[in-house]
Amino acid sequence: MEDPEGGVKPQFDGASAAGRKDGKKSRRRKGKRGGQTRSAAHPASHELSGNAGQPARPMEDAAGHPARKRKRRRRGGHGASQEGLLQPQPMEQTGVAANAARDSGDSPSSRRNRRKHRGKRGLQGRPLTSAKPSHIQPQENRAEETARAAVPRELQNGAGRKGRPENHAHQGDRPAAEHALPEELYAALDLGTNNCRLLIAQPTRPGQFRVVDAFSRIVRLGEGLAASGRLSDEAMERAIEALRVCASKLKNREIRRMRLIATEACRQAVNGEEFLGRVVAETGLELEIIDRETEARLAVSGCSSLVGRETRSVVLFDIGGGSSEIAVIRIGDNRFSRLANHITHWTSLPVGVVTLSERHGGRDVTPELFEGMVREVEGMLGSFDCPEIEIVQTGDFHLIGTSGTVTTLAGVHLDLPRYDRRKVDGIWLSDDEVSAMQAKLLSWDFDSRAANPCIGPDRADLVLAGCAILEAIRRRWPSPRMRVADRGLREGLLTDMMADDGVWRRNRNRRGQRTK
């Protein structure tokens, strides 16, 4: 409100104390001296007003601007009070008003005060903690994002979500940390013909987990195995060096349960068991060689969240370094919690990207050489006794590929500046898009493939052999679309271990107890 003389009047409940004409004292002008008014406590205020019977008025300056001087004196704090000028104060510091609010317990003024300061306090009147700047990411979150870059993200975020997280939720982006069980960590290690991979994860919501740490390195353990039948010394050294890194990561964490597996290279090599004994002696890790059926079931378990509820049939394939697992899945009206229970037929082809490229050459691949690789794999599939898949409606059937071959095709299709599993895992590729990507890779020479950021020099001589295996599978089971999975055995191992231990059921019970 504006003062008629140009000043701003202090307001109390919509009225100014200076505007009262009846000579009554305002409760708000009482000081802390036994209920006396400020004018009574300070007689000088009447002298300043020029009228002892009227409320005190502010002094005028030489220019006749009372509000300016009053404003300046109000800012002066104690100085203005000592001169008897009327000075509005916060309710908490006004003596009688504060006492009245405390006596009444819930006076209108106290209610207004609470509304006024509600944004500065918590709901119960407690000060809010200062918010962290949004541009500063917590250290643990940065570590989690680094780990997620190497693992499936949809496993963390649930089925049917594209471009997920390694949550990995089942698996990825982002698993809610408040639902995690800090004391329960699980680890899965997969030593394959071409790669050594490790995941350490923590269960979160039912069917999901959060990746705590991850490791992956190309070791080419099966290099030269097809020709000699043995693991070479150089290959074993590369694998053991990678396993030392894995052992260090496992040693630094309290793991509730772990499962460490080896696949086709150790299955085929005559010195496979001898190599695993050396691994125990040099790293302390005890790996088990799993059979091909177990490998197929684990691949299905790791990719179960990518199979939608509307899907009736799926052919899931895992193109490895030394073998390729294929599982035919038929889902009826009642879907089991474990998708692997719906496998009706499966096979394991004794061929992978390493073995096929070594037999045919993977560096300089002509269309004729590529077709020869496809026909070799087709011959292996010809002995697979599997009934034809009936497709009633569009969407009933599709392919799921989980391997470096299909993730590479997806990365090239997306023209990524560098491989990003969050954009690849869960993506759909049409049949025409897959054919176009295979033709593009076949038209590139070795140097062009090596220069692509989604392929690199380590895979440049393997990717076309993988495409040949993929092409044979597509010819056997034609499908209008294929889903890409950047996940596999490790995720299947983690899912099975957590389900067997019932951690998701216990986690759900604990949350229910907390909410009661």
TrEMBL record:
Chain segments carrying region Disordered: 1-177
Q: Where is the Ppx/GppA phosphatase N-terminal domain?
A: 206-499
Give me the stretches of Basic residues compositional bias.
22-35, 66-77, 111-123
- Give the Pfam families listed for this entry: Ppx-GppA (PF02541)
Start-end of Basic and acidic residues biased regions: 163-177
Q: Read off the InterPro entries from this record.
A: ATPase_NBD (IPR043129), GppA/Ppx_hydrolase (IPR050273), Ppx_GppA_N (IPR003695)
Q: Any idea what this protein is called?
A: Ppx/GppA family phosphatase
Q: Origin organism of this chain?
A: Rhizobium croatiense
